[in-house]
Design goal:
- The protein is an alpha/beta fold and 252 residues long.
- It has one domain: Bira Bifunctional Protein, Domain 2 (BirA Bifunctional Protein, domain 2, 2-Layer Sandwich), CATH 3.30.930.10.
- Helix content is 27%, strand content 30%.
- It is built from 5 helices and 14 strands.
- Strands 1, 4, 8, 9, 10, 11, 12, 13 and 14 form a 9-stranded mixed β-sheet that branches.
- The protein is globular.
- It starts with a strand and ends with a strand.
- About 7% of the residues have low confidence.
Length: 252
């Protein structure tokens, strides 16, 4: 079981949180690069062997550090690196009047909304210490949210060919997305992550085609249950389910 440092950043500007993630990622990339580029050592028989210690043992993997960040952003639309600007249905000047920012991010996926009442999770994980499988990583992020929804009596599901967590994804006209996922991975270090709508103002999704998927709705935990849900309560459930799914221990 590996340790993951957990930090709740509270309310933080999107750009500031992005820079913080990037700094954590780059530090882990630096550690891995130095480990891989280190000078070879001399083995027992006097041979020049890369990564072989005097005792003949292979040195341990680089000491990268895993993180899980929770944050709540002021209202902002973010567009993934492969996203299409036409999925923003209003003019940027209108967003400025509304006090909503717009960023083109270096994550995967299309356009989505972040704002108050939403829990955004940013895992900074070295997948080489777990598994080198991006698909499995995405499914595990989804599973963390699915397990959390189940604790509220909601059946969260995956939609074939579409990343994220959905409710009634196969019921025509009833498909609604409750959690968007978009990540970046460099040297198998992850950043960005999931956006889980808890008490989110869903009207903001009317100004975009969420995730570039037309004719499908966004929803929230509040919308599904008909009552406001304490964010701290959901965070605790997410933390526990993240530990279960990824087989880690969150530490402060």
């Amino acid at each position: 079981m590996q340790d993951v440092i957990f930090r709740d950043l509270g309310r933080m500007d999107y750009r500031q949180a992005w820079d913080y993630q990037e700094a954590l990622l780059q530090e882990n990339v630096r550690i891995k690069s130095e480990w891989r580029n280190r000078e070879p050592t001399i083995g027992n028989a006097g041979d020049r062997g890369f990564g072989v210690s005097q005792s003949g043992d292979t040195p341990p993997a680089p000491a990268t550090t895993h993180f899980l960040l929770f944050v709540e952003h002021p209202s902002v639309y973010t567009l993934g690196k492969s996203g299409h600007e036409e999925n923003l249905l209003t003019h940027p000047s209108t967003l400025e009047q509304q006090g909503i920012s717009l960023f083109r991010a270096n994550r995967g996926g299309d356009i989505t909304f972040h704002g108050p009442g939403q829990i955004v999770g940013y895992p900074i994980l070295d997948l080489e210490r777990f598994y080198t499988d991006i698909g499995k990583y995405l499914r595990n992020l989804e599973e963390t949210v699915i397990l959390t929804l189940a604790e509220y009596g909601i059946h969260g599901e995956r939609s074939p060919g579409e990343t994220g967590v959905w409710i009634d994804p196969t019921v025509k006209g009833r498909e609604r997305k409750i959690c968007a996922i978009g990540i970046r991975c460099s040297r198998w270090i992850t950043m960005h992550g999931f956006a889980f709508n808890i008490n989110t103002d869903l009207s903001h999704f009317s100004q975009i085609i969420p995730c570039g998927i037309p004719d499908k709705q966004a929803t929230s935990l509040q919308n599904e249950l008909g009552r406001e849900i304490p964010l701290e309560e959901v965070k605790q459930k997410l933390e526990r389910n993240f530990e279960i799914v990824f087989d880690v221990r969150l530490i402060n």
